[in-house]
Q: What sequence folds into this?
């Protein structure tokens, strides 16, 4: 009898929490089932690759022929010069740069293509060797000249453990923004009426966000100290890393706080934030770069501000690029943080208008 | 015009009308009782006066007065101690002297609990902390929602003495309750709310009470007549 009574209580509870159950049992599983479609290939097939002329003698026809040859296993993108192509290699806009020599249409002539890859892009190390081999055999078959491919690694080289450091750091930022910050804000609920009377919602939420953002400096310092202690040549306290981490934290925390406020500090808000955390973790190109996956997933990832934050932090920590190399992305990230703060303010207005 | 007032205020929650075209003024220097049965709109009225809710229609005036509040559900940081709560909220006020803080803690009977975690307090002590926080900044008007709830008889008597003295010092005290008896000797004004309407709002000397009749009995009779 007791079990029947309790099960009946569960039915009443379910009726009162239909939206939460719909989210957990229908929308989230549906989303994850559908998102599996976005992971189509194990080996990159649509990897964007820059194609540049090796000298002024290289003709448009030669560049076109090479692009046609590459399109079977990559997405070639023509660049007018090598410098912008290498710059995009560092910004993960392309994952390799192919330098085309002159004379590829001349029968019997030996030509050497150069395939530039970034030493810090650890997941691309093995595939780039395969791509070099495929490229050599395919272009040799299709072109009149005798083709060889020289693979050139540019920038600092890292192993997998070094490559994981920025991923872990950003994963931590996301985790704290979507779990710790909502928890800390929800803890204000019991005092909220008095706080609203003595101060304002904006001041309460703003102070919480500022405090949590300053707290984020602590894990950065911890990363710096631990990496130094274990002998990693990775700098965690560069201006680009600090700015990117803090701006990302502000943007994500503002969204998480907006969810908490809009759902009136209830458990529903915490659940929504966990779903958002999973989404951001899955679609920021944290572990595998955006160019690795299907066109659909690439589009999703490249639409996420957190993807650019990931590249920023990875470039700063592993490639030691200066602030000037990423000023435009940092400004963009700051814009996203401001937009997230506007969303937070709108949630506060909604809260006030609906009490 | 009054410094703290509602004018033609209606408050709806969906289809439910909590207050219907209500007008009420709160004066400093008096002891005002907002009387009404459960669900009559007392808490809604206080929250509107505090600016914590917006009226659906009508206007709320709050001009040049500082207002403190004791809430139906005590409002403080449960993870902090009583002393830390007092410290935190004192910083929102222009000036809280040590002498006033000590008098307040003693007046509401919080002395023994200052170092306890607020979340661990019993219902009575939680109420006392909420009342202390309401009065911490010595506001011109203090609005208290069911201030005697969960308090024992001794604590009630101490608090009533404290509020009496506070009103006599020229501050305004507004209490919302459904039991007027405890406050009766101190009151200067009574407003009765029934089903979201102000059924009566008069100085205590003008109340329609017969010689020897208790105010609580008269109030119950009035509400019965109004709702039957």
A:
């Amino acid at each position: 009898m007791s079990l029947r009574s309790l099960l009946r209580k569960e039915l009443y509870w379910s009726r009162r929490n239909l939206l939460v159950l719909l989210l957990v049992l229908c929308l989230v599983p549906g989303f994850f089932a559908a998102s599996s479609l976005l992971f189509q290939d194990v080996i990159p097939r649509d990897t964007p690759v820059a194609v540049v002329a090796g000298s002024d003698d290289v003709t448009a026809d030669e560049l076109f022929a090479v692009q046609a040859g590459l399109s079977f296993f990559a997405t070639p993108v023509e660049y007018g010069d090598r410098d912008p192509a290498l710059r995009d290699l560092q910004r993960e806009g392309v994952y390799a740069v192919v330098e085309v020599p002159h004379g590829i249409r001349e029968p019997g002539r030996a030509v050497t293509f150069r395939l530039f890859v970034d030493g810090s892009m650890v997941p691309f190390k093995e595939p780039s060797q395969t791509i070099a081999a495929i490229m050599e055999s395919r272009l040799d078959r299709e072109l009149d000249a005798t083709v060889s491919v020289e693979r050139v690694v540019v920038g600092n080289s890292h192993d997998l453990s070094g490559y994981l450091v920025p991923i872990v750091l950003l994963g931590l930022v996301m985790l704290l923004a979507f779990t710790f910050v909502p928890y800390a804000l929800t803890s204000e609920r019991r005092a909220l009426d008095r706080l609203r009377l003595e101060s304002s919602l904006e001041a309460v939420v703003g102070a919480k966000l500022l405090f949590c953002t300053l707290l984020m400096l602590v894990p950065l310092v911890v990363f710096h100290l631990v990496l130094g202690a274990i002998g990693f040549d990775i700098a965690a306290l560069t201006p680009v890393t600090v700015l990117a981490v803090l701006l990302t934290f502000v943007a994500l925390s503002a969204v998480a706080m907006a969810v908490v406020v809009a759902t009136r500090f209830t458990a529903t808000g915490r659940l929504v934030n966990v779903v958002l955390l999973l989404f951001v973790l899955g679609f920021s190109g944290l572990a595998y770069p955006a160019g690795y996956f299907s066109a659909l997933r690439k589009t999703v990832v490249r639409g996420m501000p957190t993807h650019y934050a990931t590249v920023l932090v990875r470039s700063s920590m592993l490639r030691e690029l200066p602030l000037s190399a990423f000023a435009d992305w940092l400004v963009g990230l700051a814009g996203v943080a401001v937009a997230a703060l506007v969303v937070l303010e709108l949630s506060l207005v909604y809260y006030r208008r609906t009490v | 015009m009054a410094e703290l007032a509602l004018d033609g205020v209606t408050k709806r929650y969906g289809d439910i009308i909590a207050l219907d075209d209500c007008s009420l003024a709160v004066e400093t220097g008096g002891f005002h009782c907002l009387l009404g049965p459960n669900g009559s709109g007392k808490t809604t009225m206080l929250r509107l006066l505090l600016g914590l809710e917006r009226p659906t229609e009508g206007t709320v005036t709050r001009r040049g007065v500082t207002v403190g509040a004791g809430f139906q559900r005590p409002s403080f940081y449960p993870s902090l101690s009583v002393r830390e709560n007092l410290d935190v909220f004192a910083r929102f006020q222009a000036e809280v002297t040590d002498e006033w803080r000590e008098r307040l803690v003693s007046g509401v009977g919080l002395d023994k609990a200052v170092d306890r975690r607020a979340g661990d307090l019993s219902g009575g002590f939680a109420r006392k902390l909420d009342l202390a926080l309401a009065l911490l900044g010595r506001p011109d008007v203090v609005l208290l929602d069911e201030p005697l709830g969960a308090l024992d008889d001794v604590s009630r008597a101490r608090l009533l003495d404290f509020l009496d003295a506070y009103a006599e010092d020229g501050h305004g005290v507004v209490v919302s309750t459904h039991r007027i008896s405890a406050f009766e000797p101190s009151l200067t004004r009574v407003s009765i709310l029934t089903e979201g309407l102000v059924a009566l709002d008069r100085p205590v000397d003008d109340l329609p009470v017969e010689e020897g009749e208790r105010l609580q009995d008269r109030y119950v009779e009035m509400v019965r007549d109004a709702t039957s």
Remarks:
- Strands of chain B lie at 4-13, 16-26, 31-35, 57-62, 67-70, 141-145, 172-177, 189-194, 197-203.
